[in-house]
UniProtKB/TrEMBL annotation:
Keywords carried by this UniProt record: Membrane, Transmembrane, Transmembrane helix
TM ranges: 49-73, 120-138, 150-170, 182-203, 215-241, 335-357, 386-410, 416-435
A Pfam family annotated for this UniProt entry: Cytochrom_B_N_2
Enzyme class: translocase
EC number: 7.1.1.8
The organism of origin for this protein: Streptantibioticus rubrisoli
UniProt name for this protein: Cytochrome bc1 complex cytochrome b subunit
């Protein structure tokens, strides 16, 4: 009885303290208003919306493990004789960066686990951002009012690539040194200013003594700071603009339906965070990655045969390997097109297209309304086909980055394999685009057939004349709603031959985007209801 009274007094005192603290905070900051809006936030239930959270929790793992590693890593290129516990390397002259990485792996308690967790989390982080961006692109979630958030996401992806490359270059082993030699060549390929840039970045001739300390500062200070700031801005915009949602009964372009933050979403998100921590811990414990003791320290006159970077920059390696050896000498300056085009111009064009695509599609469609319903990829065949073509281009260049390993493993000629990749990098995306577009239109035709005939029951009957037919039943109301409630713009009318060229080009692009479509069988009343479901909200969508 005494314990119960004491416990009740402690609970009451804790509640009173919490209430007083909240009142003090609310008088100085809009805590009550912010908490009310956040707790009422509706989160979508579909699994595809969890991809961004995987990236977020991978970043948390990276920050925690990276903070631990900074306590023991020495970012110096000064050389000394190695006398550590790894016997095969004893007596070799190595840099302090390489030696400290070996010490982390073999001498520091839990160092190898944390180091491998850090590397695996980096791979998961970049992969989650990439797949998350694909989900946004396929479903049209980059359209108004989310263009700015899309651009923030593209910037996050670009910074993640830079952060990953800097981190994988820090140990100063033979593999990372080969990557830095490649980066040095890429910078030198920039016409006119290339040599000045390399001397500025490396602090002199390659390999120099300044790059590893500079990469360390970039890796642990500059890029993480910008990443965390952009992630915070991205999340605030997500809360302010609301999530997009898949079309279903009760979900329109004017509302936001989903799980409340407390307790459903909080419980689900907490479970996902624990899964991310668990998976990265398991990978760090049982899956070896980046064994620098096998590669050895970097020597400028040595290179590994099968030296490939991590997958997220592997496509640049492949583009370099399949590019023809084109060079020109202009006024005493050698322009290395074989390096500049695949490693500088191609990534620049790629990210420029990613940044500007929402504006380009808005210009092509002439669409100025807000969109909060996700597109089904099959309903936008041209956009979907463009994305699949880009994925195939990336896959071919990634495979080309390991052409020597593939040639050795399958006993084929490296030259023959290079020509296969050169042809595939051009024809592959074209074939993928055409095939994907036809598949999307075929799926639309299947949807139309379902609406007209219903779904098959599996029962076959024979009439008195011997004819065989199968029976159908109407599709469920939820499925019918998903098929009918879609917003596909119609091609812009041609402005005529006397119109300005940009207007004619816009009409031609609009026709190329949206002329191939399969219209669904609807009544006048259904078309009116669909228009109401997809109409733009008068104000911000209410939850």
């Amino acid at each position: 009885m005494l314990l119960s009274k004491k416990k009740a007094r402690l609970v009451s005192k804790a509640r009173e303290t919490a209430y007083t603290g909240f009142v003090v905070l609310d008088r100085r900051l809009p805590a009550a208003e912010a908490c009310k809006a956040l707790l009422r936030k509706a989160f979508p239930e579909h699994w595809s919306f969890l991809l961004g959270e995987i990236a977020l929790y991978s970043l948390v793992v990276l920050v925690l493990t990276g903070s631990y590693l900074t306590l023991f890593f020495n970012p110096s290129m000064s050389e000394s004789v190695y006398h550590g516990v790894y016997v095969p390397l004893q007596g070799l002259r190595v840099t302090d960066a390489y030696s400290s990485t070996l010490d982390i792996s073999f001498d520091i308690r839990g160092g190898l686990l944390i180091r491998q967790m850090h590397h695996w989390a980096a791979l998961v982080f970049v992969a989650a951002i990439g797949v998350h961006m694909l989900r946004i692109f396929f479903t049209g979630a980059f359209r108004r009012p989310r263009e700015a958030n899309w651009m923030i996401g593209v910037t996050l992806f670009m910074l993640a690539l830079l952060e990953g490359f800097c981190g994988y270059s820090l140990p100063d082993d033979l593999l990372s040194g080969t990557g830095l030699r490649t980066a040095n060549t890429i910078l030198m390929s920039i016409p006119v200013v290339g040599t000045y840039l390399t001397f500025f970045v490396w602090g002199g001739a390659f390999p120099g003594h300044a790059l590893i300390p500079r990469l360390y500062i970039v890796h642990v200070l500059f890029v993480p700071g910008v990443l965390i700031a952009l992630v915070a801005a991205h999340l605030m915009l997500v809360v302010y603009l609301k999530h997009t949602q898949w079309g279903a009964q009760g979900k329109t372009n004017r509302n936001s339906v989903g799980l409340p933050m407390v307790p459903q979403f909080t419980a689900k998100s907490t479970g996902l965070s624990l899964m991310v921590f668990g998976v990265t811990s398991a990978l760090g414990a049982v899956a070896q990655i980046n064994p620098i003791w096998n590669y050895g320290p970097y020597q400028a006159d040595q290179v590994a045969t099968d030296a490939q970077p991590d997958w997220y920059v592997g496509f640049l390696e492949g583009a370099l390997r399949i590019m023809p050896p084109w060079e020109n000498n202009v006024v005493g300056h050698t322009i290395m097109w074989n390096v500049f085009i695949p490693a500088v111009l191609m990534p620049a064009v790629l990210f420029l297209v990613l940044y500007l695509y929402p504006l380009f599609e808005k210009w092509v469609t002439g669409d100025l309304m807000e969109h909060h319903l996700c597109d089904r990829p099959r309903d936008r065949p041209t956009r979907t086909a463009l994305a699949v073509a880009a994925i195939v281009f990336y896959a071919v260049t990634l495979l080309a980055g390991g052409n020597d390993v593939i040639a050795y493993s399958f006993r084929v000629s490296v030259n023959a394999l290079t020509w296969i990749f050169r042809i595939s990098v051009i024809l592959g995306p074209i074939v993928a685009f055409l095939a994907t577009k036809r598949i999307c239109l075929a799926m639309q035709m299947h949807d139309r057939q379902l609406l007209e005939e219903g779904e098959e029951t599996g029962r076959v009957s024979q009439n008195v004349y011997g004819g065989i037919s199968e029976s159908h039943r109407p599709i469920p109301v939820e499925h019918r709603y998903r098929l009918l409630v879609r917003d596909i713009p119609k091609p812009l009318a041609h402005p005529g031959k006397q119109a300005p060229r940009r207007h004619r080009m816009r009409a031609a692009l609009s026709a190329w985007y949206y002329r191939d479509r399969v219209d669904m069988p609807t009544t006048a009343e259904q078309r009116l209801q669909i228009t109401g479901k997809t109409a733009a909200p008068v104000a911000a969508p209410k939850e």
